[in-house]
Design the sequence.
DNA sequence: CGAATATCAGTGACACTGAAATTA
DNA sequence: CTAATTTCAGTGGCACTGATATTC
């Protein structure tokens, strides 16, 4: 009903056919699936799952409470518990009591966890390059900006952090 | 080795800071997660899962074999079986023997399935609009092009279909 | 008391692998 | 016999809800 008539009018001279949000969703889903598949394959040799790797990346900035990790990952706090369990079991992170709030738990990297960050980053970069490798620097910048806009509109916490660097 | 030196040379005067593929991966993952969450919520009232909805959309173009559905969805054939099981159980699709190849199964929409396509499309559009709604027509076009490039490089079948329209 | 924090228990969607049956 | 198609069986990742204990 709404996407039918392509609106062949000018506006921008280049855009001769409006792109539906649904099409974007389809494409983004496919790209994400490919990205996930590659990442899982790269992370497996390190003994990490994707979610665990993302937690490690959050912890690289310093100790975090469970709720803050959840906010950074955009998941409910309960979901973070088993992720940190896995990291703790692997000796990559450790839980410590929060001196300021006895309800909270501070999660911090161990030495082993910090040492793994290099390999982790290399794996991340490698699998991401496998997907975005064909994009030029300009295209990457454009894609970054667009995804940032999308993410920001959704109230993404980790995007706010990157906003400062830009 | 390959992604190191940012190549600060001119080329395009606008790009003053290269965007790492890893950052793009992070952003894309977040956007995909938000998209999935919204879609699941919109699809639940229709009694559909995300994967089932995607299968329906593929079938909208006509009957498909299981292997072709798998290719369109970019998953292994085995994964499609339970999806079609669900659709068949809900009376939205049906399996028929392929007259040309007795190994194959042709999956086609039923009347109920075809009738549901409208609601399905509305739900898809609605949840996608919730994520991409802040983008202008030009930005959508740009994002579409970029994601298409990424997807195409990965040998995505469903992207090839859209390529014809472009 | 109500609110926040983390956890326990259970559920569900979904993609994978390996193995089997049927047919080309 | 080899290859393709589908399905069976099992596994793993992960995100959700609801309920509970502790603490602010």
Sequence:
């Amino acid at each position: 009903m709404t996407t039918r008539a392509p609106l062949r009018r000018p506006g921008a001279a280049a855009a001769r056919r409006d792109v539906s949000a649904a099409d974007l969703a389809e494409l983004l889903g496919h790209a994400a699936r490919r990205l996930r598949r590659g990442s899982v394959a790269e992370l497996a040799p390190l003994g990490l799952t994707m979610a665990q790797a993302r937690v490690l990346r959050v912890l690289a900035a310093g100790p975090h409470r469970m709720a803050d990790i959840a906010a950074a990952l955009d998941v409910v706090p309960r979901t973070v518990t088993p992720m940190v369990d896995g990291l703790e079991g692997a000796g990559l992170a450790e839980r410590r009591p929060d001196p300021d709030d006895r309800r909270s738990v501070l999660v911090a990297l161990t030495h082993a966890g910090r040492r793994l960050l290099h390999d982790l980053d290399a794996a991340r970069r490698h699998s991401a390059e496998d997907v975005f490798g064909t994009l030029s620097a300009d295209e990457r910048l454009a894609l970054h900006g667009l995804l940032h806009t999308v993410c920001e509109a959704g109230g993404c916490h980790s995007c706010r952090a990157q906003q400062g660097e830009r």
Q: What stands out?
A: DSSP finds seven helices and three strands in chain A. Chain A touches chain B through 62 residues (CB under 8 Å).
